[in-house]
Amino acid sequence: MIDRDALQGHLQQLLEADRFKDYGPNGLQVEGKREIHKVVTGVTASLALIDAAIAAGADAIVVHHGLFWRGQDGRVTGWMKQRLAQLIRHDINLFAYHLPLDAHATLGNNAQWGQQLGLVADARFGDQDLGFIGPVPDGLDLPRLSELVKRKLGRAPVVVPGDGRPLKRAAWCSGGAQGYFEGAIAAGVDVFLTGEISEPQAHYARETGVAFLACGHHASERYGVQAVGRHLEVNLGLQHAFLDIDNPA
């Protein structure tokens, strides 16, 4: 068991949350019960995840995508009312960490996703150093990398192959980081992996020769919260369960 405020302090320090300029509040977003025994982790604070956490007997939920984002109008209606009502009715704490969970050097989405693919960063790039860069393992060409992504993430990536050059250096940034592609190209990599693709990236890949893989926003961001949950289990003695609510995005 841990006190809610102690857990909040531990997560804030662990993920260095206060150093990030983010799109929404990091930390405790919805206050629940004081004593926490079991934590459920998941990618997004959807109603499906909240309901599953209730069924699992969670005292707290830790997610990457929380409830509150810059630009919302603030009205508690529709889907927002449903999610908040369930959390409050069952006295469950909701913690959310967005960019801090992407960036952490060992527990973050990019570090953990890279680990799944055998990629280890030796450099950073992009806004707030969110993007990772590192060497491509020997023998991992684009077809093998695409197949590895499919096997590890459970979905085939969208691939724009570039000019077919050997893959020596890779850049990656989980989620909706397609806008980082230009920075990755400027950094001299041979392939860039992220979650999503927008219209311009196909042209950039064809014109620069740098391969682009869109591997799924949700699919590429499942690993950081799991690592944080395992950390809480090992270091604080909390019960932990990761619940994966499937999302085709």
Word description of this protein:
With 249 residues, this protein is of the alpha/beta class. The chain has two domains: 2-103, 3-Layer(aba) Sandwich (Udp-n-acetylmuramoylalanyl-d-glutamate--2,6- Diaminopimelate Ligase, Chain: A, domain 1), CATH 3.40.1390.30; 109-217, 3-Layer(aba) Sandwich (Udp-n-acetylmuramoylalanyl-d-glutamate--2,6- Diaminopimelate Ligase, Chain: A, domain 1). Helices cover 37% and strands 21% of the residues. The protein has ten helices and 13 strands. The chain has helices at residues 4-14, 47-55, 78-89, 99-103, 109-117, 142-153, 181-186, 199-208, 217-220, 223-236, and strands spanning 2-3, 27-30, 35-36, 38-44, 60-65, 93-96, 123-125, 131-135, 158-160, 169-173, 191-194, 211-214, 239-242. The strands form three sheets. The chain has a six-stranded mixed β-sheet with strand order 7-8-10-11-12-9. It has a five-stranded mixed β-sheet with strand order 2-6-5-4-13, with helices on both faces. A two-stranded antiparallel sheet has the order 1-3. Strand 7 (123-125) and strand 8 (131-135) form a beta hairpin. Helix 5 crosses helix 10. The mean pLDDT is 98.
